[in-house]
Each structure stands twice: as structure tokens, then as C-alpha cells.
Specification:
mainly alpha, 5 helices
């Protein structure tokens, strides 16, 4: 339980840095995006290490946001890896009949994966 709360707090800190970066001037933006990415990765690793059940939505949100950040930082290779991970998770949930876990959010995740993929071609 402590790990879940800690990872949620770290995720929210990451989200704060992410949103702050989007409102910042170009000089500060990259620094804030890197800090947000580091925090998202920490939250993701905490969740994965704890092997908590039913944390798919949390993990998908963290990986999605990492992909968006790396795309914004023009690190296409890392962004693609994040979105491939996200797509694999979505496919696993669909295959197992567990799409109710992420209900409406699935459309947003799929939109990010497909839009960014078509931009790199």
C-alpha cells in the first residue's frame, strides 16, 4: 500500500513538471521535461517492482506520458519504444478481455500511438 501511494505521489509530481514545462519558455522546457520523465520512470519502476495487481491504467498512463515527453524532446527512438510498450499492453488487455480496466482511456492511448507512429514515417 505504501508503494502504491508513493508511486501516485511521484506520478503527480511528474505530471506537475510536465504541465509546467508546457507553459514554460523554450529555455526551461527541456529541463522540466527531463525532470518529469525521470519522475514518471521512477513511479513506473516502483509499480513494476511491487508487482501490484490491477495497476494497468497507472502503468499505461506513465508509459504514455513518457512517450509524449520523449516525442517533445525529439528523441524518436525512445518515444517509439514507449509507444510500442503501450501498444503491447493494450493488445494484452484486449486479448485477455480486460479492456474494462482502462475503459474510456483506451481511445486516448490508441490515438497517441497511431498519431505518433504516422508522423515518423
Amino acid at each position: 500500500q505504501t508503494i502504491m501511494v508513493s508511486s501516485m505521489l511521484i506520478f503527480n509530481l511528474a505530471l506537475g513538471h510536465h504541465l509546467s514545462a508546457l507553459a514554460s519558455d523554450i529555455k526551461l522546457q527541456a529541463k522540466k521535461l527531463h525532470k518529469a520523465a525521470m519522475l514518471y520512470e521512477l513511479a513506473y519502476n516502483l509499480q513494476c517492482d511491487a508487482q501490484l495487481e490491477n495497476n494497468f491504467l497507472f502503468i499505461m498512463a506513465a508509459v504514455n506520458n513518457l512517450g509524449v515527453i520523449y516525442h517533445q524532446l525529439e528523441d524518436k527512438e525512445t518515444a517509439t519504444k514507449c509507444f510500442q510498450n503501450l501498444l503491447s499492453t493494450i493488445m494484452l488487455l484486449v486479448d485477455c478481455g480486460k479492456t474494462e480496466v482502462c475503459c474510456g482511456e483506451l481511445d486516448g492511448f490508441l490515438r497517441n500511438v497511431t498519431n505518433l507512429d504516422s508522423e515518423s514515417s
